[in-house]
Amino acid sequence: MKLRKILALVLVMALCFGMVAVLSSCGGEKNYAENNEKIKIGISGPLTGGAAKYGIAVENSAKLAVKEINAAGGLNGIMFEVEMLDDKHDANNISTNYASLYEGGMQVSLGTVTTKPGLEFKGYAQADNVFFLTPSATGDDIPEYSNGYQMCFADSDQGTVSAGVFKDEFQGKKIGVFFKADDDYSVGIKNNFVKALGNALGEVKMASFTEATKSSFTQQVSELKDCDVIFMPIYTEPAALFMQQGKGIIKADAIYYGCDGLDGIDAEFDVSTITQGISYLSHFNSGATEGAAKTYIDAYVKEYGESAPLNQFGAAAYDCVYAIVDAMKYAIENNGAEITVTISASDLCNILTAVFNDKNFVFEGITGAPGENGKSTIKWTDAEGNATNGHVNKTPVSYTVKGVTVK
Amino acid sequence: MEFLNTFINGLSVGGVYAMIALGYTMVYGIAKMLNFAHGDIIMVGAYMIVLFLPINPIVAIIAAIVLCALLGIFIEKIAYKPLRGASPLAVLITAIGVSYLLQSLAQAIAGPTTYHPNPLEKLFPKFMGEPTYGIIKIGAFQIKLSTLITLICVALVMIGLTLFVKKTKIGRAMVAVSEDKGAAQLMGINVNNIIMITFAIGSSLAALASVLTTFESASVETTMGSLPGIKAFTAAVIGGIGSIPGAMIGGIILGLVECFAQAFPRIAPYTVAIEFSLLIIVLLVKPTGILGKKRREKV
């Protein structure tokens, strides 16, 4: 009896060691890129389903950027290519997508287009030490590990950044906030906004709703009826209902100011009967008429036609590709890095993180407020030169749907 | 002024709850069952508005009310009548089943799109547009046309229903059935017909409630009836389930509590919790509700 027990224990231990051995050989140091002929940039995003317009814009824009870079001679002759897989904005597809991309020779990545799948993606990318710079996954935790970076503003940063816009633009105005009290996104932004605003603009009037009270805002409208500017870090559906029910009660010249949740409100709803102004914090103006943004828009429309989805997601992806290539150039010129077409993802990751955390690395792009040369300056370090743990540092632009243009 | 505004908002929100609660309480009083599918009748009514609004707003409102009344009768005939005499639990579970059935059917037919129909904008396009936007201003006091209509409708329904129950033959038959079904039957009252009429009235009131909600451009989606349904049920219980004036009082109280809670930013996020806590307090202090009758249990 005792012998059998010992035997069983030994067998179980053998099995465990066996599994560990198999697992470690899976994740080992194998360089899947050894047969690559171009440096492969992998992306996972929604190409079908409700969020497809974002994924398609990202794919189009990333391919446009790669086409331009290759046409200009690439990176000292090294060419690039983009591979994008469809995740339908569903985190369950990430393990398969990631494995196909990684084992298919992906050396660097734009991560995912949306946040939920991105939270899954970052774990795999960390395990293999793959660098990713996401154009549009805004979750605060996306750049949790040292290999993850964002081109978009993180959710919580949007509150701080919006407060900055309010201090600059809305001095002497009465400010109201309308937020969703049971939503992390909304509460997170609201808290950071209130904290960053402090007492700069006097008392801020608050009104909120929850999932259970989202069908009528009669009371909230009367709470905020005296405000000149109403900050609404919420999504389009409740915002449109609030604006509808606020007609004639909210000041006719008031401004509704939102974050990226309001992106697309004019496409989804008829806002023509709303007299109030509508603006939202963005990092890209898809109606830009000058500067680098305009050059991108023209090239995009020429390549994909008028009907292709054009939005800030795509613009950010375009910037991501250029930022990665610029970082490689920077590494070669300043850090003496050696980059070949078959470099392993892990080696490239180490090179890129060093550059992105370097205070002297400044990328000039199309997202963020444009400077004198029509391009914006984008960094991943703060004013003191410290790395921001993957969060982007650039000046926002407000996208005005209607009414007085907010800068 | 702020107080008056909140008070009027409370009355109009509460009026809609009261109207839905009447359906709950009447059905409970007469058929002794909790019709949890009642909230989803609101949703069906709202979809009827979406469907018929392009034809004509008046047609849409009438169609919503009539079709919901018919739906109420149909549900009663198909799902509840065969269970007459079954255990209350079986009827309750059936009602929950009907509720989900209606939601799923609506999802299958109408799809996931959210609609925002507003019959009021079609009825009074000029007044609802610039520059008045459907706001009536009397000096410093202002009230929305939709709110005013809601208040008038609720008052009329309450007066009408009270008169109906007290003065008409069918109304008194309803009271008789709710007092003692067996005795009423012996006196020559057709209990099945009375139950059917009760369902028809309850469902048409739910439809009227949905019409009033669309006046406020509420979002029409498949789950829109659940929460108002539960709140109206709460209102009915607070007022004393089975009692018609109780449902009215319960609804108004709930509406006032909701709006006054939302008027204070600190407690606004907990509005729904406060409303349901009220239910618990009422049940603890006066288990039969404010106007509920005490029943003597014979041992």
Could you please describe the fold and organization of this structure?
The complex is a heterodimer of chains A (about 400) and B (about 300). By secondary structure, chain A is α/β, with parallel strands linked by helices. Chain A has twelve helices and 13 strands. In chain A, strands 7-6-8-9-10-13 form a six-stranded mixed sheet. Chain A is globular, with a radius of gyration of 24 Å. Chain B has one domain (about 1-230). Helices cover about 70% and strands about 5% of the residues of chain B. Chain B is built from 13 helices and two strands, in the order H-H-H-H-H-H-E-E-H-H-H-H-H-H-H. Chain B has helices at about 1-30, 40-50, 55-80, 90-110, 120-125, 125-130, 145-165, 170-180, 180-185, 190-215, 225-240, 245-260, 270-285; strands at about 135-140, 140-145. A two-stranded antiparallel sheet of chain B has the order 1-2. Chain B is globular and about 60 Å long. The interface between A and B is medium-sized, with 27 and 35 residues.
Question: What is the structure about, briefly put?
Answer:
Chain A has 12 helices and 13 strands.
Helical stretch count of chain A?
12
SSE series of chain B: HHHHHHEEHHHHHHH
CATH fold title of the largest domain in chain A:
Rossmann fold
Shape of chain B: globular
Q: Name the overall outline of chain A.
A: globular
Helix-strand category of chain B: mainly alpha
Provide the residue-averaged pLDDT of chain B: 89
Question: Secondary-structure map with pairings?
Answer:
The complex is a heterodimer of chains A (407) and B (299).
Chain A (H helix, E strand, L loop, with lengths): L1 H26 L11 E7 L6 H20 L8 E7 L7 H10 L4 E5 L2 H14 L3 E3 L13 E3 L4 H15 L5 E6 L3 H14 L6 E6 L8 H6 L5 E4 L3 H11 L8 E4 L6 H4 L8 E6 L8 H14 L7 H24 L9 H12 L6 E3 L10 E3 L18 E6 L5
Parallel strand pairs in A: 1-2, 1-3, 4-5, 6-7, 6-8, 8-9, 9-10
Antiparallel strand pairs in A: 10-13, 11-12
Helix pairs in contact in A: 2-11, 5-6, 11-12
Chain B lengths: L1 H30 L6 H15 L4 H24 L7 H23 L8 H5 L1 H4 L6 E4 L2 E4 H23 L1 H11 L1 H6 L4 H24 L11 H14 L4 H19 L8 H15 L14
Antiparallel strand pairs in B: 1-2
Helix pairs in contact in B: 1-7, 1-10, 1-11, 1-12, 2-3, 2-4, 2-10, 2-11, 3-10, 7-8, 8-10, 11-12, 11-13, 12-13
